Amino acid sequence: MTTTGAETVIAPTRVRTAADSATVRRKQGFQHGGWFVTPFLVLFALFVIWPLLRGLYLSFTDANISGDGANLIGLDNYREALDDPLVWESLGHSAYFTLLVVPCITVLAFLLAMLAHHIERGKWLWRLCFFMPFLLPSTVAANLWQWLFNPGTGMVNHVFGIETPWLNDKSYAMLAVVICTLWWTVGFSFLLYLAALQGIPGHLYEAARLDGANAWHRMVHITLPMLRNITGLVVALQILASLQVFDQAVVMMDFLPGPEGSTRTFVQYTLEEGFTSYRVGYASAISIIFFLIIAAVALARMWLLRNREEGGR
């Protein structure tokens, strides 16, 4: 195509003008939107970034709870943490709790969501009953189940006709915390599954029913595949939350580490070192190690999700 000299000069000018206009609009949008995100960024920096940086600095010192006499000691706190048997024991308790809670809560939330989704009468009541415990504060839920598991007056032993020392035996103490957690937190995952079930197109089930698929086949070949993403989200959130278990375990055991330390979690041990032994520097090192573990789990989840999405294309 032939063009005149005037056209050759004008065309780039028009393109450059359009690009400049888009840049101006983006800058104006950022300037206006920046006022809305600034309060969040300030609070995020104040309550997340600054404590993280402060904790990282303290992990290289021998600081105590008073903050006086903090001397740099390099990696000594980290070396001690790696050789501390209670660090590994508490981490094992947190991992054990996570292995018990995550599969159970995922399956239970799915079954409750299926029930609430397909039941016809009293649907709102079922949804309310399943979600209501999640609205309770952690201390209320833990105190409630502490009473239910009481060996002498608790309803659990009375109803089932057993004499299990739930809170006084290391073989049952963590199981009691798991049961409390399932009852208390299943409502959140239940709500996610219920919302996902309502988003599955009904014509898929109609087509499968016309093809002769029974209820089991419809669930296996339609429901579960359509819920794959939400299941991954539930599992990831529950892993991150379970690794940080603290409230219910501490309250149910009257702020003690349980029989023979069987319910001492990683977070609880960190607080014990920081506020009971007054070793803030050492507690900061333990918390940084725990932060790295949580970050590794989150990054692994993101990597697996990205690989699955790329493999599905």
TrEMBL record:
Alphabetical list of Pfam families matching this protein: BPD_transp_1 (PF00528)
Membrane topology according to the record: Multi-pass membrane protein
Segments crossing the lipid bilayer: 35-53, 95-116, 128-148, 172-195, 226-246, 280-304
Cell compartments where the protein resides: Cell membrane
Alphabetical UniProt keywords: Cell membrane, Membrane, Transmembrane, Transmembrane helix, Transport
Keyword Transmembrane helix tagged: yes
Gene3D superfamilies noted in UniProt: MetI-like
CDD domains to which the protein is assigned, alphabetical: TM_PBP2
PROSITE patterns hit by this protein: ABC_TM1 (PS50928)
InterPro entries (UniProt xref): ABC_transporter_permease, MetI-like, MetI-like_sf
ABC transmembrane type-1 domain span: 91-301
Family: Belongs to the binding-protein-dependent transport system permease family.
Name of the protein described by the UniProt record: Sugar ABC transporter permease
Organism: Streptomyces pimonensis
